[in-house]
Amino acid sequence: MKSSKSSKSSSSSSSSSSYILIFFYIILILSQITIVSSATTQIPKSKPKTKSTSRKCIDYPDPNNPNKYSFSSCPTVKTNQDSNNLINSVIGDNAFQLNFTCGIKDKKLCKKAELAFEEAGKVISKAFVFNTPININALFADLNDARLLGSAGPARLIPLMSEDSMTRLYPQSLVKQFNFSNHPEFNEADIIAMFNAGADFWFENDGPIKPRQANFHTVILHELFHGLGFTSGFRDHVNNALDQKSDAISPIPGLTFESDDPTLMDPVFFQGFAETIFDKFVMVLPDSDDPSGTPPTPFSNFTKQLNNFGPPNTNFSTADDFFSKLTNSPEWDVAKYLFKKATLEKSMMFVPRDTDIIDGTVLETSLDPYAPGSSISHVSEALYTGTSDFLMRFALEPGITINDLIMNGGNYSGGAIGPKLSSIMNSLGYATPDNLEPIIPTEPSNDDEVPIVPTSLPSSVPTTTKPIYSAVPTGFVHPGPGVSSSPSLKTNKNCLMMILLNVIIIIIMTTVI
Q1: Where is this region: Disordered (predicted)?
Q2: What pLDDT was estimated at residue 175?
């Protein structure tokens, strides 16, 4: 009898253990189902989907790194006409309102730099007709690299529809001159400028310039024109993002990530390629490798060809999938063709409105290898050195004052702002004394009426402003070597939870048994 009771007790204990094990197995299964579900819902299905568009502007906080930017909501707002008229009446001889910050202790040097900014504003204001002030945020500080002189760029690029019904990126300083009753919301600054107090600069009244000194006045004028819109959107965005050797250039690709810290394995929303208003007037000239009879081709034609990929407004399961499909697509051959052209001398030209191509301005394409920032967005060094259009060359000679450069260029009546530069800026939309009514884009009427690429711009991004990059205005942050193929952080956490639960079950089973 005693033996029989022990058997029953053992059997009962065994049954209880089985029930406990079954119970915990059920918990484990349910937990794993929940976790896997949580992990997989982070990536959308591979089937392309479209999203509605809304106006987004691109903000550039650091002119020394034009590839670092953020998308910002810029809804259409209505201008207060009375306030606008008041602003127009106080421009005077300088349309540039300077917010100057000096980051060094040498107050005398700070004052020299500030006065040079103000003088540059007066020079530009004399050559163009501004009806609304342009706000500059300027920093003069030691940038810890004596080779770096400084830079400036548009604080915000705004999508507007040009007269040819193609939406392009316009610098905010230019959009303000259109005096639209309704306009996309403006950033606080129009131009961001940053110059190196650690460089060996020469200023007016310093005495004779030394052979190795850089003329601060020339550098400021040059960079402010970049801030006003003398800049192309065609760069090697994709290979920079992938940390690969450059072999292609394209307009700005609009990519939106759900994650604040994306990797190549995160899903991405592709919204198409967008060019700047500067690019509208760039022509690619044929060379001996092109088929006979090939005509000069506008950059805009290539932008439209690239936008056959996707199509725009399409989800991709991962950024890696997007880049792989893009770089292996027939459309990407266009980007490789343009990269080759960007290293062939006299292959690209800015042709202003109502101008024969023979009278256009040859852009800098002689640099081989391709030099981002120098190639395309400058005039030809070889052709315009010693001319009245010396200012927008990519390299400015040290040891020469701006007055020397003007005299060497023929003492043009417009000073440092040559006739070709004036014509280029007038084509973008800035009024000049000779053309007070340049062609301007269509006034926006409603924030929800932004057309889809190829006549539109990146949209459907998070409403909060956040830095998007490191080396490419696409919204992609290259995670660095050895990390790009890693799963997302959320997925890693889920895997750890699964392992932990399995360990707990094993411990419980061992204890019960």
Answers
A1: 44-64
A2: 98
What is the maximum span of the chain, computed from C-alpha positions, in angstroms?
A: 123
Residue whose tokens read 């701006």: 402
pLDDT at 146: 85
pLDDT at 138: 98
Q: Which two tokens stand for residue 186?
A: 């403006």
Strand (E) positions, 11-90?
Answer: 56-59, 70-73, 76-78
The continuous run of DSSP H or E covering 82 comes out as helix 81-88
The pair of three-digit structure tokens given for residue 269, joined into one six-digit string? 């929303």
- Written as six digits, the tokens of 191 are 């131009």
The beta strand positions in 60-144, using DSSP E, are: 70-73, 76-78, 96-102, 134-141
Residue ranges of domains in the chain: 56-231+382-428
Torsion of CA 284, 286, 289, 293, to 10 degrees: 140
pLDDT at 484: 25
Residue 84 CB-half CA count within 13 A: 14
Q: For the chain, list residues with pLDDT below 50.
A: 1-15, 26-52, 82-89, 448-449, 451-496, 499
- Give yes or no for a cis peptide into 291 (omega within 30° of 0): no
Q: Which residues contact 444 (CB under 8 A, 6 or more apart)?
A: 55, 76, 160, 180, 182, 183, 184
Q: What is the distance, to the nearest Å, from the Cα of residue 287 to the centroid of all Cα atoms in its chain?
A: 30
